[in-house]
Amino acid sequence: MFTRLRWFLYGVVVSAVVAVMVVKRARAMKERLDAEGVGRVVASYAADIVEAFGRSLQRSADRGSQTVERPTPEGYVSRSPRR
Predict the structure, then answer these.
(1) Which residues of 6-22 are buried (b: 16+ CB within 10 A; e: fewer)?
(2) Ordered alpha helix ranges (H), the chain
(3) What is the number of other CB atoms lying within 10 angstroms of the CB of residue 37?
(4) How many CA atoms lie within 13 A of 41 on its CB side?
């Protein structure tokens, strides 16, 4: 009997803590939903897109200059350009 009561009390406490966290999060989101906050989010998202595009361009340029190590019959590693 006490086991059920204990789990019920745990559930009540956890529910109260989660409710407080959700309310705090909702208030913080409400404060960020002004014009400046939306502008910051859009600017950050645009910067992330530009950065990702730059990385993809850099990777595509680097692909041609990488070398691949291939073992030779003698056991030595020769470095030759990737094909």
Answers:
(1) eeeeeeeeeeeeeeeee
(2) 2-32, 35-62
(3) 13
(4) 8
C-alpha separations of 54 from 9, 37, 62, 63 in Å? 54, 26, 12, 14
The 10 Å Cβ neighbour count of residue 1 is: 5
* pLDDT per residue as tens, the chain (83 positions): 689 999 999 999 999 999 999 999 988 887 777 778 778 888 999 999 999 998 888 888 777 665 556 666 666 655 555 54
DSSP string, 50-64: HHHHHHHHHHHHHGG
Phi, then psi, of 76 in degrees rounded to 5: -85, 155
How far, CA to CA in Å, does 17 sit from each of 5, 31, 69?
A: 18, 22, 56
pTM of the predicted model over 0.90: no
